[in-house]
Design brief:
The complex is a heterotetramer of chains A (about 500), B (about 325), C (about 400) and D (about 350). Chain A has about 500 residues and is α/β, with parallel strands linked by helices. Chain A is built from 18 helices and 22 strands. In chain A, strands 3, 6, 7, 8, 9, 10 and 11 form a 7-stranded mixed β-sheet that branches. In chain A, α12 crosses α13 and α14 packs parallel to α15. Chain A starts with a strand and ends with a helix. With about 325 residues, chain B is mainly alpha-helical. Chain B is globular and about 60 Å long. In chain C, α7 packs across α8. Chain C is α/β, with parallel strands linked by helices. Chain C starts with about 25 loop residues before the first strand and ends in a 15-residue tail after the last helix. Chain C is globular. Chain C is built from 11 helices and 14 strands. The chains are: A alpha/beta (about 500), B mainly alpha (about 325), C alpha/beta (about 400), D mainly alpha (about 350). The complex binds adenosine-5'-triphosphate (2 copies) and magnesium ion (2 copies). The site of one magnesium ion has 3 residues of chain A, from α1.
Chain lengths: ~500, ~325, ~400, ~350
């Protein structure tokens, strides 16, 4: 099926996520959609698949304009979208998930559905157990299930939004093979990514979005020179490669020390961890989603007590003391979901500073507002001291969260510190974190973005299937080597070498 | 031995309104909506059902009116929480109190007035089968209905495509929306259907089990049903088992007066509810991560049966229970 | 500081009312009832008694507040209800529950110009009541004996169940009377030994069902039936006993019931009703209203019995017994014989030896219990299953 | 300018519409009984002010009601639905009885103080059990609270029918009356114990100050809004949660104590009389804003007291006051939904 959009516009309040887009995608091909964070890729895909409705413009399927009132309409018209995190029902089995609210007449019986599923899985090369519960599967497997569900429900156009974040290299290869097969059968595939290599490997055409516009107007045939695409995505400055700056060695005692720590979380076992995390370093945790980074961060933040072993902070044994004790010892934890876990949306920045006051019966409101004003100036937060945090933009929320870190902090644990931020905000955040590092903090962060890890880490720790690798100095690592390690290639050797 | 069967049959009968209401609540909670107004709804429906049956002389009309009342209260809850986005807990609680007082006020003329009752209807032939006949076939239609509604609910939830949608609504409404289903409309439908069952359960009190109407006639039954649904882990058969356990405990409480001559047995009647909460707490404690970690340190031969038992007992709430759904 | 009459004042013959020449002003009397006026039991009997006064005494007005109890009106106390009635002009207040003793006395002390009748109380007897309070109660012991006899005559299983309210001297003496009547007729007319008669009491904890506070009488009655008791005698204000017996009978069992308090109570289940012992408050209330109006009030503790020449005479007999449709003609004849024996004094069931449950003596061999002993019954009698002391 | 005026108009019309809707529903119920709604409203709305005695009855109801509502405004700020407030009141009443029965000969002033302390402790303990059930056994505070309510009324029944029963009978009408000199001093013929409203107002002032001015209050609000984030910012979230429950329980316990020494002068099974649940309605309507608690508590108490005359004068049930109260809260919830 051939799909196109004309003058499509979608605004979110002041943000114009898609600004009079006009572009079309031909059948039987794989179309890449590129763009930096916030360029409007996901918005366009959601419009195409009926999740949201455009403010202006129209969507055309096979030359007929369509009004999509919901994802059901889109699927009925033959368009299905695989979300970044598959929108399935974790408590269901694969088969139940397939049957749930399937369009009428698609599956005549459970048995028919199972047969069709197994047949398709065989054709696409996806291994699948129809009776397995989805919450027991990896993200990659769930994505495969979701693709098959959409195809079986009659999708002629398959949209995938950043499908390769969070799946293994092997799964990515299987996915690409399947997508080629799907396109070869005459269907249309829209492949959203900001990874140039993947687009180059897979796609027949590419569409680059920037600030809600298609640049240059219309599709480009692949291949295209990489530098050209980068300049389209980021403008001229964005393509500049990061400069690696060697660090002076600091002889400070470790902020954290793990001794023979064993911990578990769900199916994941972390066994016999022995690590020292030195002050004055930025340590990046690399690994696929669910490889153990989060457990490690929770252990270091005191949110989870180890089953065995000891956790020391600044030389003091704080095993099982709870996150408040860790915090008092100078450990600061910055969660990825800022509004959900990080700050209190209904309270203002001044209220947050008041919360940090530790002495006195009464709130010293004047002092809190003073501190808030200082933070606003210093961190360039676009807000007043009394604006509720919830009404700040994501980047400003992140800056506010950083501003709230007391100067006494010795260790900062940051989960995806630039999640959802644009490049400029991300740079600003990182310069702050680097300043903290230079003051002698140890900063440990996790990120799904390998570029970010390569760019900002002094040392990198690779997590693979619950195993935590040794810290590798950034200088010894190349991007391709890191990618291999994350996928498990050479991981054993790495661990053994260090032992 | 005969006494045992008679007592068991009495338990099955006594639990019938609880079972009907609990299945209704299970349906709406499975779809992600807590109907906390249950206690008030049951009272208002019991009163209305009785009043209508009395004035029209028609039992069926009484039950229909009660179902209508239950559905209407559920619809109000839906309007305020699903459409207007208020907390289900707050609205449900206020409705519970409001309906209770409404039932007292409007029901005043009907207090302790003799009225119609569901007739005893043993099932020919089957009623005379020993034991089974006593247990299952010597009752009235309301009680038969309570027997049938359990497998019906279980089948609906686990055996039909509709059931897949219902369960998905409570687990992940966004996924249901992604499949082209109108989440809010379906939640309304299940909430209202569940409310109608709750209404019928109210009438089962006033027209059958505790004939007539009096102030706070169904004392606390609604709150008990809410607790039983949690206790039953939102699974129809287990929920029903909870209802029967509760009814059995109540009979024990009544009987205990002769057995415990020195204890004021009025206090025993609060026991079933307290026991329910207590057992729920124990089950939750047993399946807590700390307890699981403790279990993991035991020898293998112990681990397996223990984990099996805990998993069977564990009651996992629908993931999206009580949470509002907003279209993207 | 008035000395109470230790001996019950016999009800004087109705004074001849020489058609008073249109009383100067309307006389308002009020009543505070513990339950609803239409409960088909104790409260309805009082309400009808008041209606009797309105019908038979010209120029009186009746006002009332019913359901004065912690379940129905959680924030209303007796004193408060009495205040309201006095505020509306009531000159005589009747309170109808033993529970109201303290409240009645408090209100009476605060309003010495208003007359009070505390029905079923004994604070005049104990000397704790202010002088404007009288106590009034009927000798329901006789009604209960007749009820027990009717039950014993009819039971097939030999198992009688008594749906008890709360435990106090009054309820104990009524249970005991029922048992004595039942035992006598079981032995005399059925020719069976007392040991073969099962008699069980379950107390619900109050005069009627308060959800969550008392046992639920519906459930208790059901439980009696499931345990095989085939006559349910009610001691509570409401009619759950007969309702459940009727339901069970429709479900193919044979269960009989003896309701209580109110002459019309059989209406809740004609087919299973063996009869009802009832109070007829009208004549006594009429007498006392007239007394109060005439200003001839003095404190008294009264315990009025039936008019033995016709216990069902609506104008003279405080205690009556209406036979129910379920009582067979043969048993009805035996019951009449029993009543006649009570009436002519040839049978006094409070004759010793009578023993309490724990074996202590209630009435020694060869003696007859006096009123005070009966009024302050300490325990249930031996042979009764159930709690004796609270 | 214009938009400001529009906003103001909107902010006024919505509560007004809620008021109208609540009265419409209540009027409908009244009409169905055939009485004149106007007459009924006259009694319900103003009946409590018609005589000094009724006014004092209203104050004696408003005092425990305000105490409960004030307590609940703390738990609401902490993000908890403390349906267990009824049980906490009962537990407080029972605990308050203990010193009164143990040492009836001690000086009354000391005994009242002891009763207040032990009532507060009893209520707080009862509330903490809810916190423990929620924290350690993952039972939501709503059901834990309901369970504890049942347990408390069972305990009250046990005390009334068991150890503290009247000499000759076991009646659910309550224990023997306390000796006269242990009744909280009462204005003659009015049943008004001035200490009760004074205690309630004092509690209101203290709680308002604690919630808005102190660091503790800020932390409680932070925990109520987002426990995870508050914990990350160094607030001991569970501790604050437990403290709010204990504070609410203590205030409810004092309300229970007042019911014993100032209203019933005995322990009765239904000592809480639904005041706790009514307090929840008050707190919901006031949106836990301390400034609104007093007027709403007084209004609700006067509805309840005023409605007592309905059965007397109009022959209809007094539960209409509850209908009006419930409807007001229900429609107020909706009015808010629109404002947001
Ligand atoms: N539901 C929403 N509400 C408000 N703003 C939104 C919403 N969805 C997207 N936006 C904004 O619209 C812009 C485009 O977002 P979109 O998610 O389409 O970007 P993207 O290209 O998919 O970025 P990424 O690579 O980070 O996924 C962003 O500025 C984003 O903040
Ligand atoms: N509380 C839990 N209960 C059950 N399973 C869990 C729990 N927490 C984590 N898991 C499982 O353990 C695995 C590791 O999860 P975790 O999120 O800790 O890893 P991660 O590598 O830090 O992920 P991310 O890349 O998202 O930071 C996952 O498969 C997850 O499903
Ligand atoms: Mg995106
Ligand atoms: Mg993770």
């Amino acid at each position: 099926m051939h799909i196109a959009v004309e003058n499509l516009t979608k605004r979110f309040g002041p943000v114009c996520a898609n600004d009079r887009l006009t572009v079309s995608f031909a059948a039987g091909q794989i179309h890449g959609v590129l763009g930096e964070n916030g360029a409007g890729k996901s918005t366009l895909m959601k419009l195409l698949s009926g999740y949201i409705q455009p403010d202006e413009g129209r969507i055309v399927f096979n030359d007929a304009p369509r009004r999509l009132r919901g994802p059901g309409d889109a699927l009925a018209a033959g368009v299905g979208m695989v979300q970044q995190e598959p929108l399935d029902i974790p408590a269901f089995t694969v088969l139940e998930n397939l049957l749930c609210a399937a369009p009428p007449g698609v599956f005549r019986s459970r048995r028919a559905a199972q047969t069709a599923l197994l047949e398709l899985a065989g054709r696409l090369g996806f291994p699948v157990d129809p009776a397995a519960r989805l919450d027991q599967l990896t993200i990659g497997q769930r994505q495969q299930v979701e693709i098959m569900r959409l195809l079986l429900c009659g999708a002629q156009v398959l949209i995938l939004d950043e499908p390769t974040t969070g799946i293994t290299a092997a799964q990515a290869r299987a996915l690409f093979a399947a997508l080629r097969q799907i396109a070869a059968e005459g269907r249309t595939v829209l492949f959203v990514s900001h990874k140039l290599e993947e687009v180059a490997e897979l796609c027949h055409t590419v569409t680059v979005l920037r600030n809600g516009h298609v640049v240059p107007p219309g599709q480009l045939p692949m291949p295209q020179p990489q530098e050209y695409l980068l300049s389209l995505m980021f403008g001229e400055s964005g393509a500049a490669p990061p400069i690696y700056r060697p660090l002076p060695a600091i002889d400070a005692p470790p902020v954290w020390e793990l001794r023979h720590v064993t911990a578990r979380s769900g199916a994941l076992h972390l066994v016999d961890l022995n690590h020292r995390f030195a002050a004055g370093r930025i340590i990046g945790l690399a690994g696929l989603d669910g490889s153990g980074q989060q457990v490690l961060l929770r252990l270091l933040a005191g949110q989870q007590a180890p089953d065995h072993g000891q956790v020391l902070v600044n030389g003091r044994d704080l095993t099982g003391a709870g996150s408040i004790a860790f915090r008092q010892a100078g450990v600061e934890y910055l969660p990825a979901d800022r509004l959900h876990d990080g700050m209190i949306g209904a309270l203002s920045l001044a209220d947050h500073f008041a919360l940090l006051q530790r002495n006195g019966l009464l709130v010293d409101r004047r002092r809190a507002e003073e501190l808030a004003r200082q933070a606003i100036a210093e961190y360039q937060i676009k807000a007043t001291p009394v604006t509720p945090i919830a009404s700040l933009s994501g980047g400003n929320q992140q800056r506010a969260m950083l501003a709230l870190i007391p100067s006494t902090a010795r260790g900062i644990l940051a989960e995806q510190p630039t999640r959802g931020l644009d490049v400029a905000s991300a740079r600003a955040i990182w310069s702050r974190l680097q300043a903290r590092r230079d003051d002698g903090c140890c900063i440990i962060f996790s990120s799904p973005d390998l570029d970010e890890i390569m760019e900002y880490s002094d040392e990198v720790i690779v997590c693979f299937a619950g195993r935590i690798g040794p810290p590798i100095p950034r200088a010894l690592l190349s991007a391709s080597r890191l990618a291999e390690l994350i996928g498990g290639v050479g991981f054993d050797a790495l661990v053994d070498v260090v032992r | 031995m005969d006494q045992l069967w008679i007592d068991l049959a009495a338990v099955l009968a006594a639990a019938s309104p609880l079972v009907i209401a609990a299945m209704g609540e299970t349906l709406s909670e499975r779809a992600g909506v807590i109907n906390l107004s249950l206690d008030g709804t049951m009272l208002l429906a019991a009163m209305t059902g009785f009043a209508v049956a009395l004035t029209t002389g028609n039992l069926l009309l009484g039950f229909a009116a009660a179902a209508l009342v239950g559905a209407a209260v559920a619809a109000v809850l839906g309007l305020f929480s699903l459409t207007l986005g208020q907390s289900q807990t707050a609205v449900g609680f206020v409705l519970a109190l409001l309906c209770t007082d409404l039932s007292s006020f409007l029901g005043a003329p009907f207090v302790r007035v003799p009225g119609p009752a569901v007739p005893f209807t043993p099932i020919p032939v089957l009623a005379d089968v020993p034991v089974v006949g006593t247990l299952f076939f010597r009752h009235d239609p309301v009680i038969y209905a309570s027997f049938l509604i359990i497998p019906a609910t279980a089948y609906l939830l686990y055996g039909t495509r509709l059931g897949l949608i219902v369960r998905a609504l409570g687990e992940r409404p966004a996924a249901v929306y992604a499949r082209g289903v109108d989440v809010t409309r379906w939640r309304y439908a299940l909430l209202i259907a569940g409310g109608a069952l709750v209404g019928i359960a109210g009438a089962a009190f006033s027209l059958d089990l505790k004939q007539g109407w009096s102030y706070r006639h169904t004392f606390g039954a609604g709150w008990i049903v809410l607790a039983i649904v949690i206790f039953g882990g939102w699974r129809p058969w287990r929920v029903a088992l909870g209802c029967y356990l509760f009814a059995a405990l109540e009979i024990v409480a009544t009987r205990s007066q002769s057995a415990l001559p020195n204890i004021p047995t009025q206090i025993v009647q609060v026991a079933p509810f307290v026991l329910m909460i207590f057992v729920l707490a124990l089950v939750n404690l047993a399946s807590s991560p700390a307890a699981m970690r403790r279990v993991a340190t035991l020898p293998q031969i112990w681990q397996r049966p223990l984990l099996g038992a805990i998993n069977r007992l564990r009651a996992t709430a629908p993931a999206a229970l009580g949470q509002p759904f907003e279209r993207p | 500081g008035t000395q109470p009459a230790a001996q019950p004042t016999a009800a004087p013959a109705a004074e001849p009312t020489t058609a008073p020449a249109a009383p100067a002003e309307e006389f308002t009397f009020g009543m505070v009832l513990v339950g609803p006026i239409n409960d088909g039991g104790w409260n309805q009997a009082h309400y009808e008694g008041a209606q009797y006064v309105v019908e038979h005494v010209p120029g009186v007005k009746f006002i009332y507040i019913d359901k004065v109890n912690p379940a129905d009106r959680p924030n209303v106390k007796v004193e408060q209800a009495i205040e309201e009635l006095i505020g509306q002009g009531a000159k005589l207040i009747i309170t109808n529950s033993a529970e109201f003793a303290d409240g009645t006395n408090i209100a009476a002390a605060a309003h010495p110009d208003v007359f009070f009748i505390h029905a079923s109380g004994d604070k005049v007897l104990t000397g704790e009541a202010p002088p404007n309070v009288r106590n009034l109660m009927g000798r329901m012991e006789y009604g209960k004996m007749i009820a027990g006899c009717a039950a014993a005559l009819t039971t097939e299983a030999g198992k009688l169940a008594y749906l008890g309210p709360l435990i106090d001297p009054e309820t104990r003496r009524l249970v005991n009377s029922t048992y004595l009547g039942a035992r006598y007729c079981w032995e005399t007319y059925r020719g069976r030994p007392a040991s073969e008669l099962a008699f069980k009491v379950t107390w619900i904890g109050f005069w009627f069902n308060i959800p969550g506070v008392t046992l639920d009488p519906t459930k208790v009655a059901n439980d009696f039936i499931n345990e095989g008791y085939d006559v349910i005698l009610s001691g509570i204000d409401t009619t759950e006993g007969i309702v459940e017996a009727n339901k069970a009978t429709q479900a193919g069992k044979r269960v009989f019931a003896v309701p209580y308090d109110f002459a019309g109570a059989c209406a809740q289940g004609e087919a299973v009703c063996l009869g009802v012992p009832y109070f007829n408050w009208g004549p006594d209330y009429k007498r006392l209203v007239e007394l109060a109006r005439a200003g001839k009030w003095e404190p008294a503790w009264e315990w009025t019995g039936p008019n033995w020449s016709n216990i069902n005479d609506p104008d003279t007999s405080m205690i009556g017994f209406v036979k129910g449709p379920a009582l067979s003609a043969e048993n009805a004849a035996k019951l009449d014989e029993f009543i006649a024996k009570l009436a002519d004094g040839s049978l006094n069931l409070f004759t010793g030896p009578l023993f309490y449950q724990d074996g202590t003596v209630f009435v020694p061999e060869g003696q007859v219990a006096d009123d005070k002993t009966i009024w302050y019954t300490q325990q249930l009698l031996a042979g009764i299953e159930g709690q004796s002391a609270p | 300018m214009r938009t400001d005026r529009l906003k103001l108009a909107a902010n006024l019309t919505r509560p007004l519409l809620a008021l109208v809707a609540a009265f419409a529903l209540t009027t409908l119920a009244l009409l169905s009984t055939g009485v004149s709604p106007l007459e009924a409203y006259r009694l319900v709305l103003f009946g409590a002010f018609s005589t000094p005695v009724r006014l004092s009855d209203m104050i004696m109801l408003a005092a425990p009601l305000l105490l409960c509502a004030v307590g609940l405004s703390i738990t609401f700020a902490g993000g908890l639905y403390n349906l267990g407030v009824e049980g906490q009141m009962i537990a407080g009443a029972i605990a308050a009885m203990v010193p009164l029965r143990l040492w009836p000969d001690w000086p009354p002033l000391l005994l009242w103080l002891l009763a207040g302390l032990s009532g507060a402790a009893g209520g707080a303990l009862w509330a903490l059990l809810i916190g423990a059930l929620r924290r350690y056994a993952n039972v939501s505070e709503i059901f834990a609270g309901l369970g504890m309510n049942f347990l408390a009324s069972g305990l009250a029944l046990y005390m009334v029918l068991g150890p503290w029963r009247r000499q000759t009978s076991a009646s659910l009408s309550g224990t023997d009356l306390l000796p006269r000199d242990l009744w909280l001093p009462t204005i003659d013929r009015l049943r008004l114990a001035p200490a009760a409203p004074v205690i309630a107002l004092l509690a209101l002032a203290i709680v308002w100050w604690a919630l808005t001015k102190t660091r503790w209050g800020l932390e409680v609000r932070a925990v109520g809004l987002n426990p995870a984030a508050a914990g990350r910012l160094g607030v001991a979230a569970f501790r604050r949660m437990a403290e709010t429950l204990a504070a609410c329980g203590a205030l409810a316990g004092i309300a229970g104590m007042l019911q014993v020494v100032a209203v019933h002068h005995a322990l009765i099974p239904n000592i809480s009389s639904g005041i706790g649940l009514l307090g929840l309605l008050v707190a919901l309507l006031a949106r836990a804003d301390p400034r609104w608690l007093l007027p709403i508590a007084v209004a609700f108490a006067s509805f309840t007291v005023g409605s007592i005359q309905l059965p007397l004068t109009l022959g209809i049930d007094s539960a209409i006051a509850g209908v009006l109260q419930g409807a007001l809260v229900l429609f107020a919830l909706v009015a808010r939904a629109r404002v947001r």
